[in-house]
Amino acid sequence: RNEGDMPMYVKVLLSVFSVVYAAAVAIVTQFDKIKSFIIPYVADEFAVGNMQAESSWYGFEAFAGVLLLTGLVAALVLFARKRSFNGIAALSAGVMSYMFATTLFVAPQVEKYSQGAVIEFLESKKGEDCYICLPYYKSYAHYFYSDRQPGNTCDDREYLLRGALDKPCYIVLHDVEDQRRSIAADSPDAGLIYEKNGFAFYRREPSAK
């Protein structure tokens, strides 16, 4: 090997990882078509609920993988011609293009599976004078998506679940058996509003004055 040449094992690793990442994007864009074959083998109740969501795939998202592979091929050709600097530049351009495209077009669609239902619910509470409580899992989503203000922000879980409220409180939890049992025990007067894509939404009413 000449001084400055890219080692063969590095080229192989770059090729393997590039193909894997490109294939991952291509597969995830087809998820709505294949998820019915996957769900029967998934044991996690919350994950199954998430998979019920639908995303708006347009078909061009897989082009992110093409950008990555184009950068890889260009880099390998340049490496073979002993132009290592240009090869690294080509590979870097492919990687950055891939990251930009997946961040812009793929990640928002994937988010619809993981928390689309809860984001939709929280955004519907913007401007409403209410509390929002996520008692059984850690998230800061409600502070951002529902635009919480000092007057309707409260982190006192005991008060929100059992106390005499001065305004309505919406409770968000994963739609799984243990959390459903917990809310029934911790806040028996909380009424179920609806369930969607792995999440359950409840409401506690303010105390009568």
Automatic annotation (TrEMBL):
Key words of the record: Membrane, Transmembrane, Transmembrane helix
Domain of life: Bacteria
TM segment ranges: 12-31, 57-80, 87-107
Protein name: Uncharacterized protein
